[in-house]
């Protein structure tokens, strides 16, 4: 797929208009349109601005021919724990340089409730243990072990663990967080 087509596909995947990407990237709507229609070639600086606006790395638009395989062992100890958040995050993917997905194992403490937030990308989550209340936009879903959800991250969303035990989630999203 050509560069302009990849940019258009990513923008549409996120549900963004050219105007929104223009405002975020600092590039004009006509210039972005020309790039998407293969009538202009962006400079590296312009492409970096577009990539930031679309929540991806430069390699998303110019993929390398070589793909690396990253194996993360269960005892790797790649945990992130922030004192202000009552959950623990384990990275499952390691530090691959050409990877777009971010798979995480998330441990959510009982009675935790997040504030709604939104960002570029998309999210998939699968409940392994416990229960999760997922709010996406105006919809509310009660999920238990074995249940999954997939949604665009651009829609405001929030999590809550209403139970008395820890909830364990497999979360996969874009763009990468770590």
Number of discrete domains = 2
CATH topology type of the largest domain:
Jelly Rolls
The main pleated sheet reads as:
6 strands, antiparallel
CATH superfamily label of the largest domain? Jelly Rolls
Estimated radius of gyration: 18 Å
SSE run: HHHHEEEEEEEEE
Assigned CATH architecture of the largest domain: Sandwich
Indicate the percent of residues in helices. 10-25%
Query: Number of helical runs?
Result: 4
The fraction of residues assigned to DSSP E strands is 25-35%
Amino- and carboxy-terminal Cα gap: 27 Å
User: Please, what is the average pLDDT?
Assistant: 83
Q: What structural class results from the helix and strand content? A: alpha+beta
Word description of this protein:
Helix content is 21%, strand content 28%. With 178 residues, the chain is of the alpha+beta class. It folds into two domains: 3-60, lambda repressor-like DNA-binding domains (434 Repressor (Amino-terminal Domain)), CATH 1.10.260.40; 79-174, Jelly Rolls. The protein has a six-stranded antiparallel beta sheet, with no helix packed on it. Strands 6-5-8 form a three-stranded antiparallel beta sheet, with no helix packed on it. Helix 2 (18-25) crosses helix 4.
